[in-house]
Every structure is written in C-alpha cells, then in structure tokens.
Design brief:
54% strand, five-stranded antiparallel beta sheet, mainly beta
Length: 155
C-alpha cells in the first residue's frame, strides 16, 4: 500500500455521459453506464472488493428549482447482464438547487459500493430528475472507481 499515491491503489472506469432538459429529453430517464468486467484489471490484480460510484454534473436551474439523482448499481454473471440483479440502490435525493434569479451549479456526488458479494460484471445507472419545465438543463457524467484489490492493478 502506498498512502502517498492513491492512483496506485485505484482504477477508474467510465460509466455514462448524458444530458437532460426539464420535462424533455433525458429528464427522469435512466443514464445507463457501460458494463465493467471486474476480472479485467490486468496483471492478476483480482476482482476489486469495493468501489465508489461518481456522478459529476453541471446544471442550469431556475430560482428554487432542483436536480435530483436516483442511483442503481447492477451486477450479473455475463457481459450482457442477462441475469441482472440490483446490488445497491440509492433513493432519489436533491443534489442541486437553483439560486436567487436562477444559477449554474456544478457538483459531484458519490456512492460507496461494497463488492464483496458481487458477481463478475457491474454497471452504474443514474437517473437525473429536473423539477422545472422546459428551461432547466443538466449535463451528467458517471464513473466507477474501483479499489480493494488483492494486488495493485497495472492498467
């Protein structure tokens, strides 16, 4: 373990990238991430036992209007997730509120994920929900950051 070099201890994988317009395209629609093979981290690192889900966003909100996120972490035994099951969920929660006169807000939200009982394949799904009509927007990116390897992975 190298406490001064966190990059040597973790591996990040892209989830998904998307946009939402209040009461329009992408609003209250699941942003489904890519499927990640937990055994494909190279050099025999083994399957990670923990992860952090990350959602990074930029949103333009009217005064007092909000962006909420709902999370779902799914896992399965094959890359197509034919036997998909929910590993973890997080109920809808407000993550950003428009300031006086409206504002552009930036933020990052995280979700700790225990992978000790997880199947081989995993994906992150985040659903953005804007509560205004037509004017508010959000851009959102998700990722999974893996740690807890038996060995430090070599990417």
């Amino acid at each position: 373990m190298n406490a001064r070099n966190i990059g040597a201890e973790i591996t990040a994988k892209i989830g998904a990238i998307g946009t939402a317009v209040a009461a329009g395209a992408g609003d209250n629609t699941a942003l489904v991430g890519q499927v990640v093979d937990r055994l494909a981290f190279g050099d025999g690192a083994g399957a990670p036992l923990s992860a952090v889900g990350v959602a990074i966003f930029k949103t333009t909100l009217a005064d007092g209007k909000t962006l909420s996120l709902t999370w779902k972490i799914e896992h399965g035994n094959d890359v197509g997730l034919s036997d998909t099951a929910d590993l973890q969920t997080k109920a809808k929660a407000v993550v950003s509120t428009g300031g006086a006169g409206g504002s552009t807000n930036y933020g990052a939200e995280t979700l700790d994920i225990d992978l000790s009982g997880c199947k081989r394949y995993i994906r992150i799904t985040v659903t953005p929900d804007l509560d205004a009509a037509n004017t508010d927007t959000a851009s959102l990116s998700t990722a999974l950051i893996f740690g807890g390897f038996a060995r430090v992975p070599i990417a």
